[in-house]
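Request: Show me your protein:
***
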Amino acid sequence: MLRSIHDTFGYPVEALDGTLGKVKDTLFDDRHWRMRYLVVDTGRWLPGQKVLVSPHHAKQPETGWQRKHFPVELTKEQIENAPKIEEHEPVSRQYEREYARYYKQSQPYWSGPYTWGFTQEPIFFPPHEEVQSPSRVEREQHSERLDQIAESHLQSAKEVIGYHVDARDDSFGHVEDFIFDDEKWKLQYLVIDTKNWLPGRKSLIDIGWIESIDWKENYATVGLSRKQIENAPKYDPSAPINRDYEKNLYDYYGRPYHWKEDASVLTPM
């Protein structure tokens, strides 16, 4: 199912033994356009602290999201003992590897040919034996390794929302939201708010039509003209995105349907 990232902000995150907090943000991979982590604000439970939760720990998200919450296969103790992150701290592949090591995740997503390792969707693999919470020394070592990490390929969705959007011939709006596939945790569409020149109108473009994003100057460049986007099928955020709308969108732009490309192209890591 296709969902709005922005709409998930504020969803409660439920551990095996209680509520962890609420979704504050999501981090996505700007190379493969996959959501990699939920940023969870732990609220009154751990005041002022935020933690990361991987889709690998999500338990049937399509079921949970119908009730507007995320159930995860983690305990509150595991989360409480994990080193915390700053809200806008970048997370790199080294951090992800450290995350997998810390939680004893046996099959990290980069270990196979697909975008989730050996599968197209994130799958929870229960441990063969009870996993003990890391010791104080392990937590200290984990924190030290995180301090050594500088580069990152993960970006904050909340930060990118609001970026200016440049067409090939004009600057015409800003990033309003992302639409993602909740089975593959894949970003599928960029929502553009064109209120600067078309009040009340929002447009969708395939995430693959983004030519570049300038993280320093805060704008995204798309490989389309302003007129193309202006005359595209109108997007209504209050209505679900169905296959008929998607077909009209791709037919209008003269582009191949994304579901055919997804079925025929293997995305290596």
The first helix runs from residue 5 to 8. The CA atoms of residues 165 and 172 lie 6 Å apart.
